[in-house]
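On to my pick:
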Amino acid sequence: MTGFIGFLLLGCAIGTLGGIFGIGGGLIALPILILVFDVDQQLAQGTVLMMVVPNVILALWRYHQRTRIELRHVLPLAISGAVFGWLGSTVAVGLDPGSMSVGFAIFMLVLAAYTFIQMYIPKAAGTGELKYGWPALATLGASSGILGGFFGLGGSVLATPILATVFGASQVVAQGLSLALAAPTTIATMSAYALHGHVDWRIGLPLAIGGMASVSWGVGVAYRMPERVLRTSFCLFLVLCAGLLLLKQA
């Protein structure tokens, strides 16, 4: 079923997983639209962003209610992320969809490998305090923003493992800060995709509604799961989606 109700239910499932992983659902919805519904890469990215924007804002609010997100950490991430997210998206809309799918799959594999390896490297317990200040956060925001804009993800996918492993944040704090980065970045990025006609509103609207209805439940589940289980599940999902995308382009 691919009508409004079908995409609404799909949005509910994606919103739940997005809340659990702290990624707003974009990384989940994007390969589904490409693999199951045969949407080309740029149109899928723009459409997914329509779902991601409200879901990220809602998930950010839920995380902030449970774990305080410091404004001094958020601002350098959010400002640089939004600016460079716009730049990344303006480049992405003009590229070959097939090549972008392959690049996206490789990006997911690298991210999964990095996240998995970091689980087994001894490190101090993560806290709410970060090891590095605003210059490093602004650099992370810019890097996450340009990659997020390029792949239509809002930047939180890259920022979450970096904040947890390099900056020393706990997983839930890292996910909350990543959502704070993703909120303005996805708004800027979606605007660029929409201006170039790469948004399917008939798909994006029910996905957004379904996601908003379920993301809070996903966030609640995340707080009840062990950190290693969260990261391992995240890695396995990335590898599965990357493999399917590469098979599709083979």
Remarks:
- Residues 109 and 232 are 13 Å apart (CA to CA).
- The two ends are 28 Å apart (CA to CA).
